[in-house]
Amino acid sequence: MGDFVIPANPTIFLQRLTQSWDPSPDLGFSSLLTIVSVPPRAILLIFYSLMFSASGGSLVVVQSSLVLTVLLIASSGMFMLYRTLDENEKRPLAHMTSSFFYVVNPYVLFYLQNPMVILPYGMIPWCLTFAIRGLKGKNIAKNAILLGAGYTLSLATFPQVSISVLIAILVVLLFAYCYWRYPHVHISQLKLLAATAAVIGGLNAYWLSISLPNIGLFFGIAGRVPTDQASLNAQNSTFNVLRLIGDWTLLATYKARMYLPFSTLYSNDALTIVATASLPLIAFSSLIFRTRRTKQALLAALAVVALFLAKGTNSPAGSLFEGLASLPLFGLFRNPPRYFLTVATLAYAILIGQFASRLLAARRSRRLLSNILRWAGLSLMLALILLASRPMVTGELTTNWYDTSLRGYSVPAYYQQAENWLTVHNASIVFILPRTGVYMALSWGYQGANIYPYVFAQGTVSESGGQYVTSGGAKLIGAIYDEFYQNQTRDLGRILSLLGVSHVVFDRSVDTAFYDEPSISFTDSLLRGQSDLVEQATFGSVVIFANTNPSEDVRSLSRLSLDSATPTKPSGVSIIDNFSSGWNISSTYTDTGFEPTSSTMISTSNESLISTPALGQYGFAMLSKQVMLSPGIANYVVLSFKTDSHSSVALFADTPNGEVSMYAVNPTSSFLLNHYSSASRVDLVYRMGSVKSNITRIWIAMSNRLDPTYQGMLQSELFRIVFANQVGDVSDVIDLTQGGGFDPENQGVVMTAAMDQSVVSSLISFASSTTSKPSLHINEKTPTRVVIDVKAESPFILTYLTNFDSGFTLAPQIDSTIHFLINGFANAWLVERTGIYQLEIVYAPQNAYQIGVAITLGTVVALTAILVIKDRLRQLSRRLRRWFSTAE
Predict the structure, then answer these.
(1) For residue range 362-412, what is the model confidence (pLDDT) as tens digits?
(2) Most buried of the four, 42, 181, 386, 805, by CB within 10 Å?
(3) 3-class secondary structure for 69-91?
(4) What's the rounded Cα separation, in Å, for the pair 756 and 525?
């Protein structure tokens, strides 16, 4: 039923949760993104482990138990919230109707597809209940503790952490309302907020201790989340969001494949359409009653705002949402229906409960028909709620997205067989082929996340979720896939050795057409053409290859290859063209075809200034030059230019096999596809791997593609175009590794352009000297501490193949030790000490983490004591006072 696979060991499920979204892994070390995104994993781990043991190892029981438990928490929370809002109401049926709707509605479909993320949804009413009680001045300490604990639970999963943001916003709105409504308890209200913040800080100290110093990483990732997602599509119309339905339940597609969950009932079954359309009518009909009209109006307004945000860029006023989407961090709400329908569902539940209350409160009549009609009305409302949620109740949401004639899916047993084989053969890290994305497409019908971190206990390397990745390791992984699929290597194992990969897992069940990737047979032919990969075993659709190169993540090196190139100062230059001759603005392309140009080109000794009229989104001026260049002339082409604020440039190459669009590996901040704009001079780097035959013409398109409404003249300044072999990009690591004589066991690649000159001098001195490889023996190894026995006769390079982090230190401190980046992503130290001694690689922030753990444990003990024994202490103090007064 779920969107995520639960492996035999539930611990792996929790450890790998975020890696399914950011699977460019830390290569053996828990990434900061994982720590930030999945704070209270320990709580979920305890639950999963207990259920796993109690059920005798049944994964279905584990998953179903979590769903049922959280739905029970959600319904009871809604019951308490409704009761708190209407303290004087004595109609339990109204409370039950509200709580029933909260867990049985079309929106819950979003969450049943991934049981892990139901938890934040279930905690919303509890958090609001404790907030309201505390803001009324009741039992401040107790409600602050419960509110802080509930909010901590809402942080449990990624990416639904955005729901925690909504909870915080709702609590602030409640504070504003109660601050105005109950002026006599202002001090108590402020105390509640302060105490809640302290509780949240204490309970989350264990991960905040290492996350706060690196908060810039979180904001950097959040800022890169695109707001123009497919979720902002026509499926999220006003009519659909009013029915609490988003694009995932309406036959939405991703690359022409239906997305799980979905249901045809919402779009073609008249009864279901009528039932879902009745939900907003019932909810907003509660406004016609005269009692509590202020509260009802506020709830209705909250629902309207949430519905407006949930529809995204659709009319009416879709442009207003576009403006909101441009705000910093608004990209966190990248799927508007998933997040904002949470608030709408909450408001609907309360309003529907109030409607039921008023229905039951109708003046009693002695006439039997009147009573029958009143109860029939309530029964009809409950029946409509059930009909609106029929896909959830009947299980139709389990429709297999890949084969719609099937229900649900079953993970093939051969994955577990392959994992067992890898474990027996001491596999360290596995490289996944073919290249996939964060949304899986396999012949057995699974989609929704990268499954490999769940089904393999080993570290996995796969390219997906890359838009949220900032590490050098992620960039190197992407470059390795490019190199492989462009058929640029016959020694893939040597390259994978840079990552510490011991095995390659080739999954034949992947639907490569889904990702616009080459066929399975093409990947198979490339794999079998590698000289250092040996086929070892086949389990169903999974084929395992062993890497004949070393795969240790801690190793010593005696040789270095230094790369000092940058985009502005490339190495291995074969051609430099400054646009001074041979270039022509031959024509202008518009929607009606090619036409004579009205553009101008003025060349000087340093640059060429191009002026051309704006021709709309699909019109451009073409600057071209006839050439005859072989595809192997260079690894890169570098284009230096700058534009005005309305202009953009795009680079193309004509070959006998057709036109090749060039995409920069270092795009500007303002770009669309391969159209780039920059107000200051920039050197864009393009890989030449996509060019497979001779280049007959190079041409540059200049347009206002990024600003299609602009009318006027466009200006671009072109400085030079360079063909070179090294530019300081992480792909240089692969190119140098592929060179003859490179020994991955004893050699590494260092890009020195951004390094301090004193460090560079030391590395040059080492690279030019003759050294011997030391003897290393690892005594102890954890993700944060590695103890190594060393016997060295000369200086050497010690490498630790994890993403580079200045927090890694070498102990004991050696004056001559230099910590630097190697292989484009990893940690390395130049160790000049000789003799027999012991070294420790230590992750320094671990100390802060341990302090945070101590604070969290202390907070838990203190809060438990306050909740459990506070009343007893009060009773004890009263007894003592009475005893002393009696004694006197």
Answers:
(1) 555 566 676 777 788 888 999 999 999 887 777 676 666 666 666 666 678
(2) 805
(3) HHHHHHHHHHHHHHHHHCCCCCC
(4) 44
Residues 628-670 have pLDDT tens digits of 999 888 989 999 999 998 999 999 999 998 899 999 988 898 8
Give me 55's structure tokens.
């059920």
Q: Which H or E run contains 94?
A: helix 92-103
Radius of gyration for the chain, computed over Cα atoms and rounded to the nearest angstrom: 31
Tokens representing 611 are 């002026």
Q: What are 110's two structure tokens?
A: 């979003």
Cα–Cα distance measured from residue 544 to residue 459, given in angstroms and rounded to the nearest whole number: 15
The Cα–Cα gap between 544 and 538 comes to 6
Lowest mean pLDDT among 154-168, 255-269, 519-533: 255-269
Average pLDDT over residues 101-108: 89
On the question of pLDDT at 246 being above 80, the answer is: no
| Dist. CA 37–CA 6, nearest whole Å | 19
The most distant pair of C-alpha atoms in the chain lies apart, rounded to whole Å, by 111
**Distance between CA atoms of 194 and 248, rounded to whole angstroms?**
39
Burial 112-126 (b: 16+ CB within 10 A, else e): bbbbbbbbbbbbbbb
Contact 570, 638 (CB under 8 A): yes
pLDDT-based confidence at residue 5 (cuts at 50, 70, 90)? very low
Helix runs in 286-434, H state only: 293-310, 318-325, 336-360, 368-388, 390-394, 414-424
Among residues 149, 238, 155, which one has the least CA distance to residue 202? 149
Residue 566, both tokens: 């940058």
* Other CB atoms within 10 A of residue 324 CB: 13
Q: Is the peptide bond before 261 cis (omega within 30 degrees of 0)?
A: yes
498 vs 667: CA distance, rounded Å: 26
CA distances from 202 to 152, 155, 196, 210, 858 (A): 10, 14, 10, 14, 8
Of 357-366, 518-527, 628-637, the least confident: 357-366
DSSP at 18: G
Stated as kind and residue range, the H or E segment containing 154 is helix 140-154
Q: How far is it, in rounded angstroms, from Cα 501 to Cα 498?
A: 8
How does pLDDT run across 453-481, given as a tens digit for each residue?
778 878 788 875 444 455 667 778 888 88
Pick the closest to residue 413 from 459, 380, 444 (CA basis).
444
CA-to-CA separations, 873 to 104, 860, 863, 884, in angstroms, rounded:
43, 18, 14, 16
Provide the phi-psi class of 57: left if phi over 0, else alpha when psi is between -120 and 50, else beta. left
Asked if residue 681 lies in contact with residue 711, where contact means CB atoms within 8 angstroms, the answer is: no
The answer to whether 345 and 106 are in contact (CB under 8 A) is no
Ranking 42-51, 572-581, 847-856, 866-875 by mean pLDDT, the lowest is 42-51
Asked whether 457 and 423 are in contact (CB, 8 A), the reply is yes
**Which span out of 38-52, 59-73, 74-88, 427-441 was modeled with the highest average pLDDT?**
74-88
pLDDT for 259: 53
Question: Percent of the chain at pLDDT above 70?
Answer: 78
Return the closest-CA partner of residue 557 out of 748, 425, 392: 748
Distance CA(343)–CA(124), nearest Å, equals: 9
How far is 261 from 777, CA to CA, in rounded Å? 51
Partners of residue 559 on adjacent β-strands: 747
**Amino acid of residue 373:** L
**pLDDT, averaged across the chain:** 81
- Pick from 568, 716, 735: which is nearest to 638 by CA? 568
Burial 60-80 (b: 16+ CB within 10 A, else e): eebbbbbbebbbebbbbbbbb
